[in-house]
Amino acid sequence: MQMTEAKRGRATPEMEAVARDEGKSAELIIRALAAGRLIIPRNVKREGVEVRGIGEGLRTKVNANVGTSPDYANIDEEVEKAKIAVKYGADSVMDLSVGGDIDEVRRRILRAVKVPIGTVPIYQAGIEAAERGSVVDMSSDDIFNAIRRHAEDGVDFVTVHCGVTRAAVDALRRSGRLLDVVSRGGSFLAAWIIHNGRENPLYSEFDYLLELAREFDLTLSLGDGMRPGCLTDASDVAQFQELLTLGELVERAWAKDVQVMVEGPGHLPLDHIEANVRLEKTICKGAPFYVLGPIVTDIAPGYDHVTSGIGGALSAAFGADFLCVVTPSEHLALPTVDDVKEGVIAARIAAHAADIVKLSEKAFERDSEMAKARASLNWEKQFKLAIDPEKARRLHERSPSKEESCSMCGKYCPIKLLAKFMKKPEPRRTRCW
Amino acid sequence: MQMTEAKRGRATPEMEAVARDEGKSAELIIRALAAGRLIIPRNVKREGVEVRGIGEGLRTKVNANVGTSPDYANIDEEVEKAKIAVKYGADSVMDLSVGGDIDEVRRRILRAVKVPIGTVPIYQAGIEAAERGSVVDMSSDDIFNAIRRHAEDGVDFVTVHCGVTRAAVDALRRSGRLLDVVSRGGSFLAAWIIHNGRENPLYSEFDYLLELAREFDLTLSLGDGMRPGCLTDASDVAQFQELLTLGELVERAWAKDVQVMVEGPGHLPLDHIEANVRLEKTICKGAPFYVLGPIVTDIAPGYDHVTSGIGGALSAAFGADFLCVVTPSEHLALPTVDDVKEGVIAARIAAHAADIVKLSEKAFERDSEMAKARASLNWEKQFKLAIDPEKARRLHERSPSKEESCSMCGKYCPIKLLAKFMKKPEPRRTRCW
């Protein structure tokens, strides 16, 4: 197990790969992983995975969600979404399938891409129970068996909504939300708790979950079933009751050398983001923070890649480690392949904008190269450095200029004009601020 | 003149219209306008303009740029861009034409939309000089005559790069930028200063500019010719040398009852934004701040509506008053009509996300209405409340669900599921944070 080795001061091949990838020393990776502030999700059963480190001191990572729905279950399309997500820079893919042959989608995606793969096994447990009667009929065994099934297939991390407890449901009732629960897994478990009058098995049998995770070195992503689904509900008692529970579980996981990250909102006003990141980092003792957006206004369906780009950039700049892609179809429909691409790019922009703050010069070289390519009107180099070279080229070539400049200014290009009159000193090489 | 009346404690019809539009008292508008912290751009010659207030205590406003280029000058298309910009929520339009019949484009746009219109007359002065020889041959008279011509046509505000002084050019030389000047007007004037060895007439003859502005109650937008064009150049000596000059000019304008706002960057790392807003507000004594982006990474050509959405939201949350739209074509080509639409929507999202912070409940009602519409799965209401109803509907209907929910979760919609099990208290009516 990664954490066991890290605690013994030993670098695994995965830690060495992350150290190389991030330009950090193996010692630094070992120390942060041992302390739980950095994770490397990798199921021992999964072959050929290109590992990623997520957490303190590393580049902000991006996860893309794919997966079928009961209304539309086309496995090829979900595989295509996973591939395009990775092509445009997703560091991991989560398969959230809830329609068709769920086992088959997961297995196809695990074979199709090499990045770490996550799933939410409670969906399958709930759906199989629903097919027999109702979601609330699922048993504790159904839940753990689904997790085992996913782990056996090689899934690297799973979302487990362990914090959706009776206490959290009580807090939810008191909170008077506009939108009670917008998390699918959270709603399954909240309904289950209310219907059965019992505690969430993922909480009451958390030790068993840890045993299961240890078998595969399965990373647990502690789900935020109580995340706010609109700005009005942001940062309320239900959300923080759950977070307090997750903080407790983080320490229990670490005691068993199980890697964990913590999921966060959701929908937040801009000025709630810093507090949410700081509280996760204090209550969960520095465990990596995986944010689902956050979306900073509710009124832009069709553009939630933009609303979450704003929230994601700010979250990551304040210390969030992992951004979940939100596509333009969020709140409206199952995303298309193009939607996934749009969402990944917006999240990559957010992550990179934050890394410029977090990592300074390191994250910054490509921006300076772009500036130099712009100064010399070197278009091929600009396309090459662009986050989406094809689109940059297409837009540039769509309205060609008669000049070497672009068609916005044409012969009145400020760069060309001033170069004629300005004698320049050597450009500075480093960021001075 | 608006400012003269405000200083006398009198509300003009324009101030009353802004007070109604913003839900503020006329007294508050009078006070802020008299102090220069709020402007209402409106040329006395312009008929039928739907005025907008820009500044302290008001909703963040959005400006969309349109205009021809030497490579492509289709007047109908620019008029169409202005119309679509206003349709999607632009509060003003700037005509930045530098190709074809510049006078005709401006006059057509002034007739086509009712929002305040801005221009950059130095473009026309420079281009007419270039047609006779070179941009640097333009005379002081050429510059002021162009401004007068635009004002006579009814333009409500003009960008004047008064801060591109010899001192700023000296600072530019010392700064060793990767990209010296990316402002078109700034490059015209910097080249002019270097070539002619004389001071910028917009600075040396600023009193004459104020006389001209007084004739039309023309609002001056003090341009940032030295704005950084890449992250490496952000917040450098050239940028702040110019800002110091603008601070001086703001007070001189106010002394003559001329309304002013101050333009700002440009390209900034996320963690420079707060400092840039605070400094503008202190150095320019609370004059409205009009930011051009800012863009938070240089590597995303094709997606600069997203990079500037991030920077714009943050700027406005810290106090910027006016956001300039950046389209996906920025850095690549003259934007299309669709690009302008995309850019306006991203800027509107940024402005709204910031207004939730700035104005609290007031800016927030529509978000809560959206949350309620989501809770009741009322799709028609969701479309109606959306920033782009057509796109929201199109995406939703593209992959229809068999259920009343959307095709993402279908029959496993968390909202539907939990509603069956949860007995709710009355939802709270106000934002509690």
CATH class of the largest domain in chain A: Alpha Beta
What gap, in angstroms, lies between the N and C termini of chain A? Answer: 41 Å
Query: Regions of chain A with pLDDT < 50 over 5+ consecutive residues?
Result: none
Q: Can you list the strand order of the major beta sheet of chain A?
A: 3-4-5-6-7-8-9-10
CATH fold-level label of the largest domain in chain A: TIM Barrel
What is the total tally of β strands of chain A? 10
Count of DSSP-assigned helices of chain A: 19
Percent helix among the residues of chain A? 40-55%
- Bin the strand percentage of chain A: 5-15%
| Biggest sheet layout of chain A | 8 strands, parallel, barrel
What does this structure look like?
The structure is a homodimer of 433-residue chains. With 433 residues, chain A is of the alpha/beta class. Chain A folds into 3 domains: 1-35, no CATH class; 40-359, Radical SAM ThiC family, central domain (TIM Barrel, Alpha-Beta Barrel); 364-421, no CATH class. The first copy, chain A, has 19 helices and 10 strands. The first copy, chain A, has helices at 2-7, 13-22, 26-34, 75-87, 102-112, 121-132, 140-153, 166-175, 184-196, 201-204, 206-216, 237-255, 273-283, 304-318, 337-359, 361-375, 379-385, 389-398, 414-421; strands at 38-39, 54-55, 61-66, 92-95, 117-119, 157-160, 219-222, 260-264, 289-291, 322-324. In chain A, strands 3-4-5-6-7-8-9-10 form an 8-stranded parallel β-barrel, surrounded by 7 helices. Chain A has a two-stranded antiparallel sheet with strand order 1-2. The longest helix of chain A is centred in the last third of the chain and has 23 residues, at 337-359. The mean pLDDT of chain A is 95. At the A-B interface, helix 6, helix 8, helix 9, helix 14 and helix 15 of A face helix 6, helix 8, helix 9, helix 14 and helix 15 of B.
